[in-house]
Amino acid sequence: MNKRKNVYSKDMLLPEEILDLISYKQTYQALESGDDDALAQLLSSFVRISMQGAYRRFEHIEQKREKKFLLKAHVYLDALITLNRMATQIQKSVETLSQDFFKGLDIDAVRAILEKFTEVQEINRGEIRNKRGNQDQELDLPDVKFVKTKDL
User: Fold this and answer.
1) Which of 44, 7, 22, 9 is nearest to 111 (CA)?
2) Strand intervals (E) in the chain
3) Contacts of 97 (CB under 8 A, 6+ apart)
4) Could you tell me if 68 and 55 are in contact, meaning their C-beta atoms sit under 8 angstroms apart?
5) Distance CA 64, CA 77 (A)
6) Alpha carbons within 13 A on the beta-carbon side of 25
7) Quick check: 148 and 115 in contact, CB under 8 A?
8) How far is residue 62's CA from residue 27's CA, in Å, rounded to a whole number?
9) What are the Cα distances from residue 86, in Å, to 30, 89, 138?
């Protein structure tokens, strides 16, 4: 029972060290202006609907800290859903992942999420060269790959 309490604690589910790296301002601006298109670019449909519901209750939340926490938690949830939908082995740079997959999420936040839920493995360049036969494509690949081995 104690292990379960620890696994499902607020600190384990919403790690402060990762939430501190997450920017929420674009999401907040899209919510405030009612810009559904901008919000759709920032969050998946499930997270967007949840965030809109939470935002409607913001008038009942007095502390700005709680509002920021809700915004950051939704952005983090969206990142976890994105990671869960990705292949088991991810051979892209953190910069590419941030821009193309995690909807512009801060690079340090993406790196922290990857460190928490994947293992980093070095890429064997010779193996890639043999499979592809094209050395030009090799330049686009990072030196490491992220392998999802930990439960989300």
Assistant:
1) 22
2) 89-90, 118-122, 144-148
3) 90, 110, 114
4) no
5) 20
6) 4
7) no
8) 19
9) 26, 8, 21
Position 111 scores a pLDDT of 93
Q: Which amino acid is at 121?
A: Q
| Residue 126 neighbours by CB distance under 10 Å | 8
Q: For strand 118-122 and strand 144-148, is the pairing parallel, antiparallel, or unpaired? A: antiparallel
- Prediction pTM value: 0.81
pLDDT number for residue 5: 65
Is-contact 98 111, C-beta < 8 A?
A: no
H or E segment and range at residue 32:
helix 25-33
Residue 53 CA, chain-centre distance (Å), reads 21
* Full pLDDT tens readout for the chain, 152 residues: 566 666 667 777 889 999 999 999 999 999 999 999 999 999 999 999 999 999 999 999 999 999 999 999 999 999 999 999 999 989 888 999 999 999 999 999 999 999 999 998 887 666 555 555 554 454 555 667 888 876 65
